[in-house]
Design goal:
The chain has 315 residues and is an alpha+beta fold. It is 19% helix and 25% strand. It has one domain (28-48, 78-309).
Length: 315
């Protein structure tokens, strides 16, 4: 059965060129490079090899005395193969604006401008949905397990690095961000490294408002560079780069090193490859099909290097 295709049209006079679509969140996590992409993911997963050495320095002796401990182990980055499948009937467009570009033959062609707009919209929708899955995905049908649920289930993340959240306002946002910064382990607190702070969009907005000053959060006068509420303020907290992520649920954030947190897929270009096939040459039907296929999954290397704020409640 073809995909449900709802068309509402007046079809009189001339039409304005192009299509408008609903506003979408972008694929912030991958687009901002705040997670490491691991290609080659298949159903069996990808091994994340972890290497550590301890007990290196010992008192000197005249003999060669081999000591220390080298540990090589792995975590497994698991994921799922997902798809997008649509089938639309070309005849649905014959009573609307699109009919003018479909030709006069009864064997019509799909309206090119509509198809181009639809393919772009589908790719953007998939990017938005995947950004949510990276962080919020559950191990259920149509989803792979996201980072927040893995962190919530992970007993190896120290309790002090799983921070209980509170409703955030422009007045307390700096305090709550400070809790995350203070919980970052000394071993990874290097402002010249790839340490990042990913925050939900509501936290980013409230932090920027707090930087406007006027006494809102300890800032006198007109706040950052005397700009007040005008102009964009830098998303940076005490030297830690901050990124607004649409896929994070409201009131959540995480601090980590980019190399430690991973998104697995087959090929990253699969997330922008939307294929369309006219079915008339093969089946003589008046439909065209649209398809995407891609792998997705997440994991991280060292639990002890993760700081999470306001994790989801246990299922």
């Amino acid at each position: 059965m073809p995909t449900t295709n709802t068309i509402v049209t007046s079809y009189t006079g001339k039409v304005a060129q192009g299509y408008i679509t609903r506003a979408l969140k972008s694929g912030d996590t991958l687009g901002q490079n705040i997670i490491t992409v691991k290609p080659g993911l298949k159903e069996k997963g990808l091994p994340i090899r972890r290497l550590d050495v301890s007990g290196l320095i010992k008192t000197s002796t005249c003999e060669f005395d081999p000591q220390a401990t080298v540990t090589l182990n792995e975590r497994r980055l698991l994921g799922k193969k997902l798809q997008v499948n649509l089938e639309l009937c070309k005849e649905d467009f014959e009573g609307g604006w699109e009919a003018e570009e479909m030709g006069d033959s009864a064997f019509t062609t799909a309206p090119a401008e509509y198809v181009a707009a639809l393919l772009t919209l589908i790719a953007e929708k998939v990017a938005e949905a995947n950004d949510r899955l990276i962080w919020q995905g559950e191990n259920i049908a149509d989803e792979y397990l996201g980072l927040l649920r893995q962190m919530q289930l992970d007993a190896n993340i120290p309790a002090a690095q799983k921070i209980v959240g509170t409703p955030i306002t422009a007045a307390n946002v700096a305090t709550e961000l400070g809790k995350v910064a203070d919980a970052i382990p000394d071993a990874i607190y290097n402002l010249d490294s790839d340490l990042v702070l990913a925050v939900s969009s509501d936290i980013a907005r409230k932090y920027m408002r707090s930087l406007a000053g006027f006494g809102a959060s300890g800032l006198g006068g007109a706040g950052y560079q005397n700009m007040g509420f005008v102009g964009r303020k830098p998303l940076d907290f005490e030297g830690i780069p901050m990124y607004s992520v649409g896929g994070l649920p409201a009131g959540t954030m995480a601090a980590y090193k980019v190399e430690n947190v991973m998104f697995g897929t087959g090929l990253i270009k699969d997330y922008t490859a939307v294929k369309v096939v006219d079915m008339e040459p093969t089946t003589l039907s008046q439909t065209f099909r649209i398809a995407m296929r891609f792998y997705g999954g997440t994991n991280y290397g060292f639990s002890e290097e993760i700081v999470a704020y306001n994790l989801p409640a246990p299922l």
